[in-house]
UniProtKB/TrEMBL annotation, chain A:
Region (Disordered): 1-24
Biological process, per Gene Ontology: siderophore-iron import into cell
CDD domains tied to this protein: TM_ABC_iron-siderophores_like (cd06550)
Keywords from the UniProt entry: Cell membrane, Membrane, Transmembrane, Transmembrane helix, Transport
Name of the protein this chain belongs to: Iron chelate uptake ABC transporter family permease subunit
Source species taxonomy: Bacteria, Bacillati, Actinomycetota, Actinomycetes, Micrococcales
GO annotations of cellular component type: plasma membrane
One Pfam family it belongs to: FecCD
Native source organism of the sequence: Arthrobacter yangruifuii
Topology of the protein relative to the lipid bilayer: Multi-pass membrane protein
Regions that span the bilayer: 31-51, 80-100, 112-132, 138-158, 170-192, 212-230, 259-285, 297-315, 327-346
A molecular function GO annotation: transmembrane transporter activity
Length: 354, 354
């Protein structure tokens, strides 16, 4: 879109190395510590709070001196993997959202909106139904392939035409692809009740009931994706100036896009495989982060990676408390929190500028 | 208009002749195409009713229709096949016209009610009724109708900001769709598998519950809404030229747009209440009709195309796999998804995708 309309992106020292000596950086480092603290608090709350009330002293004992015969200790222990998965999935989605918004230069890019989740979901159902996959370690490959295919299709389809991938075209292409995949998916579910029974609990998006095996299965993908995505900050800064300027500065635009997209697909696919489709985390967090870091992706990416899990874990804790004795899955809570922010973003005037 | 009418007199004879020919063929097409489509609807209706797992001869059909009792056959024809075909034809009309109005109004072939959130309002409210209150039949329909209207109202109000911009309506609708989808997924996990698969059949759109009562209610809605659509179709053609041009032609833009939205939402909601959100009918009918009419928007043609699609798809769904009746929505979804992608590609290439 209009490069000229974004003088701030140009003036924001695109090439200058941001050393720790500048005062802005020191402020950001402080903020980074603060974010870490918030994340730590959310994790502590996630271990301590749940459907079964347990005194803080007992929680502490369970962590420091575990007693297998104590029922409360077992409950606390079972909350640890879901907290870890919440942190991992949140970090992945936040990071992927930020990178996606950077590479698409589009404030509405989000794995849920852009059909990536639907692609993963469709592939997982195929896996369950056609190949009889029931273990999560098997889902991962299907989810990754589905996420990649959907991302490529949506982006290609939206970027045809003279004006490139505008927010509306991307969002519509994503929504339309999701609608198409979802009805194909229903065709499978209608004819196989067994598949539906496995799938409906995955589809809602939840971090509960996952064991360490699940986490270990997706960990390599998440780690690889995170490494790639975090290191793309400089490329995304270049891309944010527009393709022509980036090329003029000596950047290989296509390569940067491809590398970032690879990171995004690894992160989204693995997070979605483990926790199911969780929308809006990737959309909301980068916008919150941008409000205090400015447009420099070298800061947006790490901040998103830390703040998103804080939100996801807090949303998970809230979902446990709100509707006792049942739980609201985190996919629902994040949608309820995220949608108002999305609509607020849409109502703001300068939508197309990023 | 005046300037246009005067042009041929100044232009050389050949050009005037050409213009006259073009106008004449366009005018002929305007009456010919709907007539052919109406014939196709009739033919499909006959095939639908007469053939299938239980077929009738034409004399038998008329004898039963005029009151003769043939054990078994009378029941199948009068209580199952005929109401089903009537409901199918009517929802096709409703969805087709609603979709064409939205697509023309928002100047975007992808902006149909099933993608911009209105159908999701119906789904969420109907699934609520099925899962939380154990509702069935008419109650579910009423819930769907209310849900669709409420969500449409909310989307309209939230996308207002000194007039409703098309893109904002689309994006706010997509935001709503995501939340309501999360709600539906959540409700599906909170119930037993039998209720969940029942809700899923409804979510797919199915004519299984068609009855004369339902056909009568739907016909009542259409009797009010179709004339309204016919009256408003005139302003729609002006609005298609853009807001400024429409205002120049003497159309009260904001009021005309509100009227069209009300009619389209009413049609979509009534059709959804009768058969569930059948995927892609609203989405496909408009573009197919436009192509048949060589680029002219025609609500009548779109509605007739919708009826053709529903009748053909339900016939295929009932007879494709022996012993299994696929819901009509599954068939339209499977056919619609590839068409959708093709449409996305072509509409973006000519720069109409948003």
């Amino acid at each position: 879109m209009s490069v000229a309309a974004r003088p701030s992106a140009l003036s924001h020292r695109p090439a200058a190395p941001a050393g720790p000596q500048t005062p802005g950086s020191r402020r950001r480092a402080g903020l980074l510590l603060l974010t870490l603290l918030v994340l730590g608090l959310a994790c502590a709350a996630s271990v301590a709070i749940g459907a079964r009330p347990i005194a803080p002293g007992t929680v502490w004992d369970a962590v420091t001196a575990f007693d297998p015969s104590n029922g409360d200790h077992a409950v606390v222990l079972s909350r640890i993997p879901r907290t870890v998965l919440g942190v991992l999935a949140g970090a992945a989605l936040g990071l992927a959202g930020a990178a996606m918004q950077g590479v698409a230069r589009n404030p509405l890019a989000d794995p849920g909106i852009l059909g990536v989740n639907a692609g993963a979901a469709f592939a997982v159902v195929l896996g369950i139904y056609v190949f009889g996959v029931t273990r999560l370690t098997g889902y991962v490959w299907f989810a990754l392939a589905g996420a990649a295919a959907a991302a490529v299709v949506v982006y290609l389809v939206a970027s045809l035409g003279r004006e490139g991938a505008t927010p509306v075209k991307l969002a519509l292409a994503g929504a339309a692809l999701s609608a198409g995949l979802m009805s194909l998916l229903s065709a499978v579910l209608v004819s196989s009740q067994q598949t539906l029974d496995t799938f409906r609990f995955w589809q809602v998006g939840s971090v509960s009931g996952r064991d360490w095996d699940t986490i270990l299965a997706v960990l390599p993908f998440l780690a690889a994706g995170a490494l790639i995505a975090v290191s793309t900050g400089r490329m995304l800064n270049g891309l944010s100036l527009g393709d022509d300027v980036a090329r003029g500065l000596g950047q290989r635009v296509g390569l940067s896009r491809g590398i970032t997209a690879l990171g995004v697909v690894l992160l989204c696919g693995a997070a979605t495989a483990a926790a199911g489709p969780i929308a809006f985390i990737g959309l909301v967090i980068p916008h919150v982060v941008r409000s205090f870091t400015g447009p420099d992706y070298r800061w947006i990416l790490p901040f998103s990676m830390l703040l998103a899990p804080a939100l996801l874990v807090s949303a998970d804790v809230a979902g446990r408390v709100l509707l006792p004795p049942g739980e609201i899955p985190v996919g629902v809570t994040t949608a309820v929190i995220g949608a108002p922010v999305f609509i607020w973003l849409v109502r703001r005037r300068k939508l197309a500028e990023l | 208009m005046n300037a246009l009418a005067r042009t041929p007199r100044i232009a050389p004879d050949g050009a005037a002749q050409a213009l006259r020919t073009v106008r004449k063929t366009a005018g002929r097409r305007r009456t010919l195409v709907p007539a052919v489509l109406a014939g196709a609807v009739l033919a499909l209706f006959a095939v639908y009713v007469l053939l299938g797992t239980y077929s009738f001869t034409i004399p038998d059909f008329f004898r039963i229709l005029f009151g003769e009792q043939i054990p078994g056959a009378t029941y199948i024809l009068m209580e199952s096949k005929l109401p089903r075909a009537v409901v199918g034809t009517l929802i096709g009309l409703g969805f087709g016209i609603a979709g064409a109005v939205f697509q023309t109004l928002l100047r975007n072939p992808l902006a149909s009610p099933d993608i911009i959130g209105i159908s999701y309002g119906a789904s969420a409210s109907a699934v609520c009724a099925i899962v939380l209150f154990g509702a069935a039949g008419t109650t579910v329909s009423a819930a769907a109708l209310t849900g669709a209207l409420l969500v449409a109202l909310a989307i309209y109000l939230l996308s207002r900001r000194g007039g409703v911009a098309g893109y904002r309506l689309v994006l706010v609708g997509i935001g709503f769709a995501a939340v309501l989808q999360a709600l539906v997924n959540f409700l599906l996990t909170r119930t037993d598998i039998r209720t969940a698969s029942e809700a899923l059949v409804w979510l797919n759109g199915s004519l299984n519950n068609s009855s004369w009562d339902r056909a009568a209610v739907l016909a009542g809605f259409l009797l009010v809404l179709l004339p309204a659509a016919a009256v408003l179709a005139r302003t729609l053609r002006g609005l298609e030229l853009g807001d400024d041009a429409a205002a120049g032609l003497g159309i009260r833009v904001e009021r005309a747009r509100l009227g069209l939205i009300v009619v389209a939402v009413g049609l979509a909601a009534a059709a959804t209440a009768a058969a569930g959100p059948v995927a892609f009918i609203a989405f496909l009918s408009g573009p197919i009709a436009r192509r048949l009419m060589h680029g002219q928007a025609s609500l009548l043609a779109a509605g007739l195309v919708g009826s053709c699609i529903v009748l053909a798809a339900d016939f295929v769904g009932a007879n494709l796999v022996p012993g299994v009746t696929l819901p009509v929505g599954v068939v339209t979804g499977a056919l619609g998804a590839p068409f959708l992608l093709w449409l996305l590609v072509t509409s973006n290439r000519v720069g109409q995708g948003g």
